[in-house]
Task: structure prediction
Amino acid sequence: MHSPLPCELYLWPGRRSYTGQPAAEFHTIGSPPLVEALLSALCRSGARLAQPGEFTLRAFLSGRIDLTRAEAVLGAVDAADPRGLEVALAQLAGGLAGPLSQLRDALLDLLAHLEAGFDFADEDIAFIAPGEVEQQLAAAAATAERLARQMASRTETAQRVRVALVGWPNVGKSSLFNALAGRFQAIVSEHPGTTRDYLTAELDLDGVRCVLVDLAGIEPAPPPGAGVSDAEIAAAAQRAAQSQIAQAAVHVFCVDGSRGLNPWEHAQLACAARNRFVVVTKGDAPRRVALSVPAIETSSQTGQGLDALRSRLRAAILEAQGAEGPGEVVPSTAARCHQSLELAAECLARARHVARAGAGDELVAAEIRVALDELGKVVGAVYTDDLLDRIFSRFCVGK
Result:
């Protein structure tokens, strides 16, 4: 005997839903087996499960949202911190779509005036004064340039924050790297100089992501007894390490807890650095190092201090992201659109130059049309199936 499943059906027969299409919702008991049975029954009756991003894709295709808002939905889902969520929600609310829509409308109006003049070229009718054309183009070009700069800035800051493990050779950086990455990736040896090149691993620290970099140990001079080729390799490793240190926003300075500090380590710790904190490694061995600065004591063998280190890393990364200055668009939009906005800005700058030189409204109109095409790519007025596949395939099921 089958018991009825309590269920309520909410129906939206009109087109004012998120997707712009009629919609229905089933509300029932939140038991996974029961929900799965309900889904199976619905699919047997002709329904099917939504594809990744299908609801947002339908909302885009029905004209409810543009592509920048669609990408903001994914940005909200993928936000790694409160600021990222704030940026995504602002874009979803039209923070980017609004200025783009106003810019496109202004250019379409200007193009309409110019083309009306072409149709009545033999008539003594002025649809728009030359000075006004240049003035409107100047305003449009300034807006496009501002949006292009905004995209370029977000593209730069959207890169993962890099965290460098810095220290003397054989202090346990590679073991710490493996422990934090959760897998064996760096070769570990008791012999100094094992790490020659740098290794990277992406960490997810409770939603805050970074790139962890394991560097060759810092050596002011080649190790004693090194041959010419060994010295060249060591020098190349040191150059690569210094380059990665310069690129890193956060430095984890590692010292070996089983021995005292050497002169180089003393000198480094004597210099204050805002983006650096100290980690004592090999905490499972007898403690011999004495420090005058705060430090997190860790052991890659026992896991001692790793949770505290992850928490400290997370805070340092969030601080570094704030120092870089937040972008005003989600990363996926910036990556996709910055080139189109740059091209649109260039076209409008050329159109303004042509209008100022009086070289002909036909050339001005041609540049405006190209700018409109590029702006259309940004908002989705111009798109391809491949573009939509790239955007919406990253969504989770539904959405």
Notes: Confidence is low (pLDDT under 50) at residues 191-195. The chain has three domains: 7-89, 94-157+328-378, 169-324. Residues 130-157 form the longest helix (28 residues).
